[in-house]
Amino acid sequence: MKTQGSATWKGGIKDGVGSISTKSGALSAYPYGFASRFEGKPGTNPEELIGGAHAGCFTMALSLILGEAKLTAEHMETTAEVSLDQVDGGYAITAVHLTLKAKIPGTDQATFEGLAAKAKAGCPVSKLLKAEITLDAQLIS
């Protein structure tokens, strides 16, 4: 399977403007730029998109692993906090912290943490990223 995203850019780094699109149309010429990436202004940025992709990938992988363990999630919610830091005169994504809250009948915290760790390691987006990836998994009763 292959899919794609695309981006356009016009201008310099600080005054330039860009847009990001996805093949599915989930994003269509959605704006991004220096201000939305580094100054908290409206628009998206690559790190936010990576966070959404990683959260989605991890949660879906966990659903598969739960099924293999004969468990089904009633509800799962994952946030992926992506850290972009200045290193060696440039920028790098240095870490991703996953926070998961899930309601899964029929399991306990220790089993849940083990299954979540397996999903973190096996998720294709986790495998792609070279940053440190950490996880807090909380089972809700």
Offer a quick outline of the entry.
It is built from four helices and six strands.
How are the SSEs ordered, and which strands pair?
Layout: E1 5-10, E2 17-22, E3 30-32, H1 34-38, H2 46-68, E4 75-87, E5 90-103, H3 109-122, H4 124-128, E6 132-139
Parallel strand pairs: 5-6
Antiparallel strand pairs: 1-2, 2-3, 4-5
Helix pairs in contact: 2-3
Task: Give a verbal description of the structure.
With 141 residues, the protein is α+β, with helices and mostly antiparallel strands. Helices cover 33% and strands 35% of the residues. It is built from 4 helices and 6 strands, in the order E-E-E-H-H-E-E-H-H-E. It has helices at 34-38, 46-68, 109-122, 124-128; strands spanning 5-10, 17-22, 30-32, 75-87, 90-103, 132-139. The strands form 2 sheets. Strands 1-2-3 form a 3-stranded antiparallel sheet. Helix 2 packs across helix 3. The chain is elongated. The model has no long low-confidence stretch (mean pLDDT 94).
What structural class is derived from the secondary structure elements?
Answer: alpha+beta
Order of helices and strands: EEEHHEEHHE
Strand order of the biggest β-sheet: 1-2-3
Task: Let me know the number of strands.
Answer: 6
Number of helices: 4
Whole-number mean pLDDT: 94
Can you summarize the main beta sheet? 3 strands, antiparallel
- How far apart are the termini? 37 Å
Q: What level of helicity do the residues show? A: 25-40%
Unreliable parts: none
Principal-axes geometry comes out as elongated
Query: Over the alpha carbons, how many angstroms does the gyration radius reach?
Result: 17 Å
How much of the polypeptide forms β-strand, as a percent range? Answer: 35-45%
